[in-house]
Amino acid sequence: MRHGKKVNHLSRTSSHRKAMMSNMASSLIEHKRINTTLAKAKALRVYVEPLLTRSKTDSTNSRRQVFSYLGNKITVAELFRVVAPRIAERNGGYTRIIRTGKRLGDNAEMCLIELVDFNEIYGKETKKKARRSRKGGSKKAESGEATAASDAGADATATE
Description:
Elements: H1 14-31, E1 33-37, H2 38-54, H3 60-70, H4 73-86, E2 95-102, E3 109-115, H5 120-123, H6 134-159
Antiparallel strand pairs: 1-3, 2-3
Helix pairs in contact: 1-4, 3-4
């Protein structure tokens, strides 16, 4: 039975799984998005989100704890200098998983995992155009033409 076993082992030994998660987390922090399988992305989300939460407080202890998970000084510096200020006001949900289809070779479900605050496409809200109804649009157009004509007539009488 599988009671109480919450870790997805991903068909790897413990040391291989830890090394893979560390490398994937470093790549995610460095590049802000990576392309991987859905199972690995879900496991990576569980691994990296506590690290992102810990990076909000810039102390020696939190840097050491994050370094023990990542094992890369450059990535830790990037996390605390660049990523942490952008996610400071967010309470959780730092990553987004977008499914991209199936892989050709083995039909594995592929996805893109990214840091939410570093996406240019979803981050900006576009202005919506005002919807015009058929009834209101024609009256405004006619009144606009009428005022323009009356202004032109007033200018013509003023010049005479």
